[in-house]
Amino acid sequence: xxxxxxxxxxxxxxxxxxxxxxxxxxxxxxxxxxxxxxxxxxxxxxxxxxxxxxxxxxxxxxxxxxxxxxxxxxxxxxxxxxxxxxxxxxxxxxxxxxxxxxxxxxxxxxxxxxxxxxxxxxxxxxxxxxxxxxxxxxxxxxxxxxxxxxxxxxxxxxxxxxxxxxxxxxxxxxxxxxxxxxxxxxxxxxxxxxxxxxxxxxxxxxxxxxxxxxxxxxxxxxxxxxxxxxxxxxxxxxxxxxxxxxxxxxxxxxxxxxxxxxxxxxxxxxxxxxxxxxxxxxxxxxxxxxxxxxxxxxxxxxxxxxxxxxxxxxxxxxxxxxxxxxxxxxxxxxxxxxxxxxxxxxxxxxxxxxxxxxxxxxxxxxxxxxxxxxxxxxxxxxxxxxxxxxxxxxxxxxxxxxxxxxxxxxxxxxxxxxxxxxxxxxxxxxxxxxxxxxxxxxxxxxxxxxxxxxxxxxxxxxxxxxxxxxxxxxxxxxxxxxxxxxxxxxxxxxxxxxxxxxxxxxxxxxxxxxxxxxxxxxxxxxxxxxxxxxxxxxxxxxxxxxxxxxxxxxxxxxxxxxxxxxxxxxxxxxxxxxxxxxxxxxxxxxxxxxxxxxxxxxxxxxxxxxxxxxxxxxxxxxxxxxxxxxxxxxxxxxxxxxxxxxxxxxxxxxxxxxxxxxxxxxxxxxxxxxxxxxxxxxxxxxxxxxxxxxxxxxxxxxxxxxxxxxxxxxxxxxxxxxxxxxxxxxxxxxxxxxxxxxxxxxxxxxxxxxxxxxxxxxxxxxxxxxxxxxxxxxxxxxxxxxxxxxxxxxxxxxxxxxxxxxxxxxxxxxxxxxxxxxxxxxxxxxxxxxxxxxxxxxxxxxxxxxxxxx
Length: 854
Description:
Layout lengths: L1 H15 L30 H4 L5 E3 L4 E5 L2 E5 L8 E10 L10 E12 L2 E7 L3 E2 L7 H6 L4 E11 L5 E4 L1 H5 L8 H4 L3 E14 L3 E12 L23 E13 L18 E6 L8 E6 L20 E5 L8 H9 L2 H6 L6 E4 L18 E6 L6 E2 L3 E2 L6 E3 L2 E4 L2 H13 L13 H19 L20 H7 L32 H11 L8 H16 L29 H22 L8 H22 L5 E3 L11 E3 L2 H16 L8 H7 L4 H16 L2 H14 L6 H12 L11 H19 L8 H19 L6 H18 L28 E2 L8 E2 L1
Parallel strand pairs: 7-13, 15-16, 15-17, 17-21
Antiparallel strand pairs: 1-2, 2-3, 3-9, 4-5, 4-12, 5-6, 6-8, 8-9, 10-11, 11-12, 13-14, 18-21, 19-20, 22-23, 24-25
Helix pairs in contact: 6-9, 8-9, 8-13, 13-14, 14-15, 14-16, 14-17, 15-19, 17-20, 20-21, 20-22, 21-22
């Protein structure tokens, strides 16, 4: 019966889906495609019968012909078998359906002629082997290029150049190029899809097509509270979404750039391959760093201009007041390239005007463009496209979403207003906002140069230097722009830091990492011949200068020095203590700085929530010490281990700090003069939600695994999980020792604590192994303390609260009250993995559904 029911449900789900509208991809009943059911070999026609006088022709890497709604490629025989990079992106979008400039994907393709057909094949470089090695034949056998689409040859042009009708490549859905997973669409409507334009250039082809996708219309849900919309969701709205898709096909260099081997100790994105011909006893995992091809005009000069500089263009849709700052952000990387031996290596230009170049387009993959997107997303992104053979970066389009201005403004006010008089009244002046735009752009440029985030950097300066006026003027408060270390919230007013030095700058790590990745190594003819020199550079720099180190690959969140959104996390306790002092000063400024006369108090409410979010982040930096490890990425030959546990005394001190500052009610946020302007009720919920974030971090599974393992390896020297829970309990339930009244804020906290322990024992993510008895024992200990305190409690509200907690603990410990097993997950399409974003914010609202981290 169960199987039959499941079969009926599955059948109904399949029937409910939109019927497929995509035609098969292999030559068929399409314009110029012939009868797909015919077994006859397709017969080319005379050239003039296919490419008629109506054709509008463009010469380029292929000759492109447009005849009404049809598009033909005439492929020179010399280009058959050559490799191209095919990039699919969104040029125009519908509301809620992704965003313009989004790169759907890129892959290497080549065009091959097979008799009277032309095949478009996808090429993979996941597995490689030297052509001279016998195993290369079998590597080719497991890497057979996929046939993405097949085309009949309609005619032959000059020198036997095949002419094919490629219309359906752009007006039907091709799974390899489809945005359907991004949109989470269910169907494609070919009747509402058509070709827009096509352009041919010497090394690339650019095509745009309108495509329409469909999604079932969902019935509205009544009664249940709805979560706020996720600004990063790219899912289309129910119904239909019509997009303009941009397809760029760029010829890859005939000779790949000489690759540079990737090293985990240095921060670079990389392309990865399995090399079966490396002569090792297993397939070698080889990785090459992502970088631009920079070659000196004068190879003998220590400092030379490049043959071709790295060039970015400013989107013509950019607000004019920010353009000078965007250019400064790009070119701020020049000193880093000078350290690598290149002068004027990176430039930023205005795009040509329509009269100068009517065909210039920001979607053209030949151009790297800083795009200004009309979006409410408070973020920016710096992806890049690279040659999978060598790691050469070929294109990098930065996405600046308009509301990143609001995020930068909010962060600067919250983190720097006590130190910068310009930030004590909103809106911020344009000059200051321009500097913040420059900083955001410079960070994203770092990504497009090949650099990932380096979260360790902000913990590597000596803590005292963060407040040293002369140090930060020269070195910055963090060694790199590529950390999530924003503005110097640790510095105090008495430190007299110059406001211009509160914003991160190109630091010593940035200069060193660009030098490591881009500086030529004379005499080295292959990546392997560079290995010894690259290793020498790493050991010499990182073993003597800590702030040139990169995040540890396998730290997996265990290193408190790799906190995000942190300043001075060499000592998170001291940094957070000073940061909270500044948050108190910010709270004093809110009423005079934020509301604008004649406007609602919406901005005041938003900024109030963001200040609490900053408090949560800083408290969680301290939480990272518990069960934490100090780490340094090392290779064989370097002394010492990679991971060293944080000392038990420091872990205990961190819990003591959290008991006194995070679990104790944060009274700095209880401001009736603010709260009564933004809501009738809500402060209790806001405080609870903030403390929930900290407790969830402290009581998480990874932390207990680390605490347990530290105890197993280090014995009595370790800060074990039993001691940790006991210390945490003493802070959460401090009133029990003296039978003191428990106020509303603390009642919330104590209920939350018991609920979380109960959930770890019985909930969906229930603990197992050694953790289960820990949480069971902790609930019993709390129950025993409540029982001891109740006879002494005189406050009725406190007594009722403790009795309720006692009952909740009894339910959690009694198996008959166990909740039912969680329901099976709903069937559906998996969500696509989003691209990395760089500017997550945390806003604490009065309702759990309004606690957002973007």
